[in-house]
Amino acid sequence: MRGVRLHSRFHPAEPPFSAKRLRPTSAITRKNFLLRCKFSGVAGVGPKGINGLSQEAIDAAIAEATRVGFAVVRQFKPDAGTSAVASRFGRVIDIPRILNAPRIPTVQTLEPTMAEHSSLNRYSGHFGHGVFPLHTDLAHWHRPPRFFLLRCISGHSAVQTYVVPRRRIVEDVGEKVVSRAVCRPRRSRPQTPLCPAPIQFRENGIDGIRWDTVFLEPINACARELAERITAPGYVEEIASRVILENPGDVLLVDNWQALHGRGTVPEDATHRRIERAYIRLGD
């Protein structure tokens, strides 16, 4: 049991839990210790030291992400490849095969890019080094991937990732508005048929939410009300938790159905920031 520590380097707007650093005692088993560490986002170091996590700790992180929308794991195998790390949490989704787009890698690299050097099918093409608004990854899919992880390759303490659980949005906007909101993908080609989609959906008994300011368009009053609230000045600062991916190996695991996420401004001295992303499927 010696050497088991949990690290928390995220910054909630209104910390809902105690963020104390706890140490297990002989009266507390490691399993109970992990479950009793009450902070939003499990971050852990297993008994093998800073580069390894037990399967129990990984399962605890997955459970936390499922419960509150995200979990943080610090400095997990910084020298390993992101695909190998992602496979510890679940099966890595073969995005290029699904999209029939071999040029899209299974693990994508996210780096700050000025708008003029990017394209409009990427967030950087719209926002450059500025704030990325809250969104769901691949929100225009019939069912967006359930989980993805962001893994720090080269980080910076001044760049924040915002995460807002679905339940906070529902509490803020109202269940009636969210359940009735309908959107559709923004048309990229005039001849492409578009199907409306509910912003809130349900699959296998699990409620999910989707939103994307850039790639989805609200088409009824409830969706417009939701969009106006989510994009209102100061909204992110009001309710979002803030995660800093600073050290190599830092991992943010996101339940893409249960949380929206965004990125803060990238200052000039943080343009070296490099994050890798992989989508994963659990239970296979």
Write up this protein.
The protein has a domain at 29-173 and 240-281: Double-stranded beta-helix. With 284 residues, the protein is α+β, with helices and mostly antiparallel strands. It contains nine helices and 16 strands. Mean pLDDT is 83; it is low at 1-50. Strands 2, 3, 4, 6, 14 and 16 form a six-stranded antiparallel sheet that branches. It has a five-stranded antiparallel sheet with strand order 1-13-7-15-5. A three-stranded antiparallel sheet has the order 9-8-12. Strand 10 and strand 11 (206-209) form a beta hairpin. It has helices spanning 30-36, 55-68, 82-89, 95-99, 123-127, 166-173, 175-180, 221-230, 235-239; strands at 10-12, 70-73, 91-92, 108-110, 132-135, 147-154, 161-165, 182-185, 197-198, 200-203, 206-209, 216-218, 241-243, 251-255, 259-263, 274-281.
Based on CA atoms alone, the radius of gyration comes out at 19 Å
Please give the largest β-sheet.
Answer: 6 strands, antiparallel
Structural class of the secondary structure composition?
A: alpha+beta
Q: Can you name the CATH architecture of the domain at 29-173 and 240-281?
A: 4-Layer Sandwich
State the CATH superfamily name of the domain at 29-173 and 240-281. Answer: Clavaminate synthase-like
Shape: globular
Give a count of the beta strands, DSSP E runs of length 2 or more.
16
Oligomer: single chain
Which strand-content bin applies to the residues? 15-25%
The CATH topology name of the domain at 29-173 and 240-281 reads Double-stranded beta-helix
pLDDT averaged residue by residue: 83
Q: If helices are DSSP runs of H or I spanning 4 or more residues, what is the number of helices?
A: 9
Approximate helicity band: 10-25%
**Which ranges are low-confidence, i.e. pLDDT below 50, for 5 or more consecutive residues?**
1-50
Q: What is the distance, rounded to the nearest whole angstrom, between the alpha carbons of the first and last residues?
A: 31 Å
What is the CATH class name of the domain at 29-173 and 240-281?
Alpha Beta
Secondary-structure element pattern, one letter each: EHHEHEHEHEEEHHEEEEEHHEEEE
